[in-house]
Amino acid sequence: MTVYESDLPGVGKKFEVELNDGSQLVIVIHNTGKRELFLRESPDSDSEKLFELSDRLSRQVGTIMEGAYFQPIRTETIDTVLSDETLIEWVKLTADSPLVGKTLAESEVRQRIGVSVVAVQRDDETISNPGADFAAEEGDILVVIGGQDACREFQRYVTAEPTTDE
Amino acid sequence: MAAMELWQVGALFIGIAMAGVIATRVDLSVIPLYVVVGMLVGPNVLGRYAPEFAIPNTDVVTILAEIGIVLLLFFLGLEFSLDRLMEAKRRITGAGLLDLGINFPVGVGLGLLFGWSLLESVLLGGIVYISSSAVITKSLIDLGWIANRESEPMLGTLVFEDLFIAVYLAVVAALVGGSGGLESAAVDVGIAVTFLGLLLAGVRFGGPLFERLFDADTSELFVLRVLAVAVFVAGVALAIGVSEAVAAFFVGMGFSSTDHVERIERLMTPVRDVFAAVFFFYIGLGTDPLLVATTVGILAIAVVATTPTKILSGFYSGRIYDLDDRRSLRVGFGMVTRGEFSLIIATVAATGNGPVMTQVIPAFAVGYVLVMSILGTVLMQYSGVFEGMLERRRSETMS
Predict the structure, then answer these.
(1) How far apart are alpha carbons B197 and B247 in whole angstroms?
(2) Run of H or E residues at A39
(3) Which of A119, B187, B334, B399 has its CA 20 to 30 A from that of B318?
(4) Residue B230 in contact with residue B202, Cβ under 8 Å?
């Protein structure tokens, strides 16, 4: 892949990226922060404007294309992959969860299931590295780290689903 | 006459805003529209029929317009870096010299043909030589040509023109402002050169100082400091008889090597646009359409003579950049537009003596910029038609 960079005096900068099929992607970064994207079918043809993005939006799109972007949405089932096997998972405790009212020592999640509670989010507060005497309450979001299977197991246990499938 | 009421300043901005709306509607560049609206609501048109509603051409407007000139040239300096010129030295200087060598002498020659003095002819040479960076850059973006290869010779030539105009303005401002004698003119040029030398030293060695001075926390403080330095230095220059525009250009160049360039461009562009709009409006205010009408003869000659020369020089500039016929033709069409700098040269002329400098050249410049900015933008918009003709002619000669 070859990228040509050139200055556009009074406008900004231009980047020409050669694509595999012989066409060129042209990115114009304006001094104002606006980005314009053009596609050029062949080196001789005119540039067709694809779209334009604001500075902020193009940075977000850029990180998505880089594969590095994710948006942590607070649901009960998002997880982040650390390696092929290990996950970080966010789990919200409902009223009927067997963990509510127990300390971490009493519920023995690490010993029985194999996940460690690395943080707890309670309302606006984040308790990192809670001790064995930490008592869970309804509405707490537990951040746990563990193997893929263990995390799945923990999820079922906390949401009090019957573990019948295994 | 110097008094101006607040509502009149408000009316001035309403006029400018309306010109902007009209320009967008009819798909033309804003600069000629600002001038036309200024002319219509000024003392020469509205003033004749309803003087109580006309916007007076007072000191207040002059000062605002001068800040406009200062900021226009300040931005030019900001964009201008010697490194960039050096990078593409061969092509930019090739295209730039071609442009200068063809178009400037045509203007001077026309002036001499009209029976003007050498200095007046040199002013005309500048007016017809210098293309409009503002209008051309905007058209390039609007048409999407900015991503095409033809944008490079166009922007490169504009950079060369900008450098030339800075030197040119310094010299002609000293010559026009001088009391006439060759000796006093030499003294004036000497003062200008010394002052600009000092500024240049500031540009060369002041980088770290600028860097610290403008390290402001808030946008407010930052904008104020930039505006303060640019306007003050330019004002001092004007006070000692050096072109304020050139001084502002050097101040801009002083900033171009600092890390503040991006912030200046982001925060100062709207400030520049407001004052630059007032400048074009002010040009209109001072223009009597009847006076423009008396220049219609030389105007017609100048348009007929200088449109093909720009197309020609642009076409061969494209060749220097190894472009094909079609794209080279676009470069030629693109360079036809004249605008802000021709008007700045006209304001320099207006400070001189004699009817040609004080009346004919300013009136001519307004008419010329109106025609050339409209003609240039239209040529760019409809270049496809001419490109098609070019293709057909070539395929006929081939077969």
Answers:
(1) 10
(2) strand A35-40
(3) B399
(4) no
Asked if A148 and A82 count as a contact pair (C-beta separation under 8 A), the reply is no
Nearest by CB: A9 against B147, B155, B262? B155
Q: Specify whether the CB–CB gap between A99 and A107 falls below 8 A.
A: yes
Quick: pLDDT tens for B258-275.
778 888 888 898 999 999
Q: In this predicted complex, what is the ipTM?
A: 0.72
| Sign of torsion over alpha carbons A76, A80, A85, A86 | negative
Cβ-defined contact of A9 to B324 (cutoff 8 Å): no
Judge whether B180 and B192 are in contact, CB under 8 Å.
Answer: no
A residues 35-94 closer than 8 Å to B (CB): 36, 38, 40, 44, 46-49
DSSP for B133-147? HHHHHHHHHHHTGGG
Report yes or no: B104 and B310 within 8 Å, Cβ to Cβ: no
Q: What separation, in Å, do the N-terminal and C-terminal C-alpha atoms of chain B show?
A: 70
Distance of CA B291 to the CA centre of its chain: 22
Å from A29 to nearest chain B CA? 10
Cα torsion B230, B231, B232, B238: sign: positive
| Count of helices and strands (H, E) across chain A | 4, 10
Q: Which residue of A has its CA nearest to B142?
A: A49
Note whether B155 contacts A31, CB cutoff 8 Å. Answer: no
Model-wide pTM > 0.90: no
**What separation in angstroms does the CA of A94 have from each of A80, A99, B190?**
22, 9, 85
List, for residues A61-72, the tens digit of each pLDDT value.
888 887 765 555
- Which residue in the block uniquely carries the two structure tokens 């760019």? B380
User: Could you tell me the two tokens for B129?
Assistant: 């030589």
